[in-house]
Amino acid sequence: MKKLAVALAATAAFVLTTPAVSAAMDSESYQAQAAASDAAINAHEDMMDAFGKDSLRPGQYVWREVPDSAGPERVVISLSDQLAFVYRGNTLMAASSISSGRPGYDTPTGQFQILNKEVMHRSKKYEDAPMPYSEFFTSYGAALHAGGTPGEPSSHGCVHLPTAFAKKLFTITDVGTPVLIGA
After folding, report:
1. CATH number, span 23-182
2. Is residue 129 within 8 Å of 76, Cβ to Cβ?
């Protein structure tokens, strides 16, 4: 019994002295999801200013050159608009239609970063399905990649991009590039 009391006391001391992980650090926390949603709203407004477009047809994208000196890249996804936005620094460089996860296969929302890139990946979960220009942003396999963009959510949780857009995006992003996904 004495050993149990000592073990419980040691555990309590450890728990009380170990700092809790901040919710703001969790990529899928409420705060991360809210920040990503705000970024998506702002990106849609930026698309209107930069390209004079309020929407894009399925499979359509727009791209303009922005100098590397403008700053690092980041990707913003708007699930409600089914659009992706690419910034270099604070300048919107590109926008594209997407297809996100269909019901039951929801695309995660929050603040992520590219963890791994593969020019041609094959799904381990979904019958060896091709995933060209994959840019993984979760440890459980969600990625930005070339795929069908029918104008509505249709994937198993990934963000499908038009092939030409996915190829260009793949060339300008690096492991560590931020990916913000808002509802």
Report:
1. 2.40.440.10
2. no
